Amino acid sequence: MELEYHPHLVPNIFLFVDRRCYPGWRIDKATIGFHDLTFVVDGRANYFINGEKFTVEAGDLVYVPGGSVREAHTFGDCPMRAYPFNFFWAEPHNHVHLPFGVVTKKAITKEILGYIREFNQVWMSKQPFYMIQARALFELILHRLLSNFNRQSTIGIDPRIRKLTAFIADHYSEDITINDLAEKLNLHPVYIGKLFKENTGSSYKKYLHRVRINNAEALLSLGDFTVTEAAERCGFHDISYFSKVFKEMKGYPPSVAKKL
After folding, report:
1. Per-residue burial over 129-163, b = 16 or more CB atoms within 10 Å of its CB, e = otherwise
2. Which residue range or ranges hold the HTH araC/xylS-type domain (predicted)?
3. Residue range 2-154, CATH number
4. How confident is the model at residue 199 (pLDDT cuts 50, 70, 90)?
5. What is the C-alpha separation between 185 and 179, in angstroms, rounded?
6. What is the tens place of the pLDDT at every residue in 12-43?
7. How far apart are CA 49 and CA 31, in angstroms?
8. pTM to 2 decimals?
9. CATH of the domain spanning 159-259, picked from 1.10.10.60, 3.40.50.2300, 1.10.1840.10, 2.60.40.10
């Protein structure tokens, strides 16, 4: 799940409401620049996202990322009640999408609904520093949604890939190639590469780099290792290449991590 590798995402919520739709309620067709995360708790509605129709009902999560064409209307005989959160990610991350489809069925748990109701109280009362508390509650909601999503995704991972990722976690500092992994499973390297990408969302090389860089960052943050020592302990023998990959993945050079 690529989202977990964006540790600096900060949601800026600008609209939240306990939306109790009247029979003629609708959202006019328009392209949105923000993210719309709507929790449907009663009734029904039709959403049209980029021209595709989605019927939603109680328990559903609706996610419309920025850049989408959005339109909606409720059912007159069964008006929708929902809690929409409209937000931007703080720059420069607003392009990052949550990993959900437009509609996720049965996504609203009692725990999430409890957080939403608490958020509603905070948002409506607007006590001093309420935005800090509101953002914290929204991040708890996102954390629970993403944890549930990741748990469901992990269940479906091919057991052979789970075996390989566990091997990488233990041997990331060694010179392991995709040919080595293929040999362990007696499979062709091209097939393993395809299987790895399908199950993790990353190429083998990118996945290995991520594990190595995350471990190198942890070593540097301790303050006991030089950049060269951290690179070598995490499987990089070319310090220039290590620095290049580190900056691409983290957004800052390894020397900065050492000072954090």
Report:
1. eeeebbbebbebbbeebbeebeeeeeeeeeeebee
2. 162-260
3. 2.60.120.280
4. confident
5. 10
6. 999 999 999 999 999 999 999 999 999 999 99
7. 10
8. 0.62
9. 1.10.10.60
